[in-house]
């Protein structure tokens, strides 16, 4: 496993991949877990070269709300990457990616930046788009592997690639869940046992919304109310939103869902303890991805 920290070394290495087989790329912000491992395994199965990046330092455009509640352990991340037999690990310092004189940013627009998580963290979304544009230019991957867990960031990357004609295929894998239904995440380690039990209501809320849709319900307000009530069944959960939208544009469907559904995303957010948690459930080609 080769570790690269220099931007120049990464660019020089990427130039050498142009004549070889496909390069699979998993971008991360560190704190690796089973969800990242699933992405890395898929990259290894389908590509000649697998590369992961870790950018852990607070980015200059991130809000204080994006700070982590668990300590970062570089050695544990490298151990996981080694177990997954990753070929290259790109670990640039944030100060190198974004020096003090950095002035060029990507400003996405549309529902992605105005609604839901985009309205809560617009600076982060603009920063994430800028970061991904830089990483794609440095790494030059053929396929980028992302998890459905971060649905709105996935849609942001898809829009970035589409709008800027970036030559990379976006491959989205289903959310990896723990035995209690929570998405695999290092952040949830800080939940108390009672908070973790309460947090399972988020996935239960998604299933409640799914059940109504499967029964033919198309009134968005009814679906949103059922999901919100399910989350609020515990006094430890404080719902922020629960709704349905287009999985790629995040456009508001209006008051009613179409009679015939093919692509849909149920998405919600709530605060549990000191954590703000999000979750989602995707329908693709008329089938729920559970």
Please summarize what this structure is.
By secondary structure, the protein is of the alpha/beta class.
The CATH class of the largest domain: Alpha Beta
**Tally of individual domains:** 2
Q: Biggest sheet, open or closed, and with what strands and sense?
A: 6 strands, parallel
Low-confidence stretches: none
Radius of gyration: 19 Å
Looking across the biggest beta sheet, what order are the strands in?
A: 1-4-3-2-5-6
> What is the CA-CA span between the terminal residues?
33 Å
Classification by helices and strands: alpha/beta
DSSP helix fraction: 25-40%
The backbone outline, from C-alpha atoms, is globular
Total strand segments? 10
Mean pLDDT value: 92
CATH superfamily of the largest domain: HUPs
Helix count, DSSP H or I runs of 4 or more residues = 11
Percentage beta strand: 15-25%
